[in-house]
Amino acid sequence: MTVLEARGLSCGYGESVVVRDLDLSVSAGEVVALLGANGAGKTTTLLTLAGVLPAVAGEVSVLGERVERWPAPRIAQLGAVLIPDDRGLFPKLTVRENLALAAPRRGPRADPLAQFPELQKRLRTPAGLLSGGQQQMLAIARALARRPRVLLVDELSFGLAPIVVHHLLPMVRAVADEAGVGVLLVEQHVHLGLAIAERAYVLSHGRVTLAGPAADLRDDVSLLHASYLGAVDDAYEGSPA
Question: Residue ranges per domain, the chain?
Fold first, then answer.
């Protein structure tokens, strides 16, 4: 089942269009990596899919519903939850309080700490006193508390040591596998992101220059590098996603 889809999506800031004619999709239980150099339009894409930025043109669908004109809170209620690169935590509130604010007011509550036993020992600790890795765990747990169908994850590894990233990314994979959540992952550690993803899109100068199975991109480093520069042969452009 496709849980997130963009067709012909263009987005940006005011009159400045950053991303043009983007097509992508994410299925339930699938991790899809969105890759590209700094300034390629990755964060702009996630913010637009989440409704934080208005779409300039094109369509966005979540669970089959057209949402490109919806406000961000309504899209989140439908099931598409953004984990921003600044983690979006309340630093003076405890772990428990941050989770309580994210939990749905009605219906059964998921256990957002099932994947993060380390946080269970720190429920009374203010979020601002956690390590960077623990803060990222809390950001993921907060998102899971909202019972998402789609997670939009922006730079999970931002500011973290590689050893911490090696620990966190498998947790994202587990969320997809165990909860059936579709994940669109922006990740600066390209090969670590590709290691947990089924498919990937590469953005260069606001356009998709490569799309295909993550395993193929891992195995062809020269093609991956070329796609970052927007220099992929026409034979590869528009490859099946």
Answer: 2-89+148-228
* Angle (nearest 5°) at CA 106 between 77 and 151: 35
In contact, 225 and 36? CB cutoff 8 Å: no
d(CA 239, CA 136): 34
Contact in structure between 232 and 36 (CB atoms under 8 Å): no
Using DSSP's 3-state secondary structure scheme, residue 154 falls into strand
pLDDT, residue 149, reads 96
pLDDT exceeds cutoff 90 at 183: yes
Contact between 62 and 79 under an 8 Å Cβ cutoff? The reply is: yes
E strand or H helix that includes residue 58: strand 55-62
**CATH H superfamily, domain 2-89+148-228:** P-loop containing nucleotide triphosphate hydrolases (3.40.50.300)
Q: What is the pLDDT of residues 56-102, one digit of tens each?
A: 999 999 999 999 999 999 999 999 999 998 888 999 999 999 999 88
Nearest Cα neighbor of 62 from 147, 146, 150 is: 150
Q: Is residue 173 packed enough to be buried (19+ CB in 10 Å), middle (13-18) or exposed (0-12)? A: middle
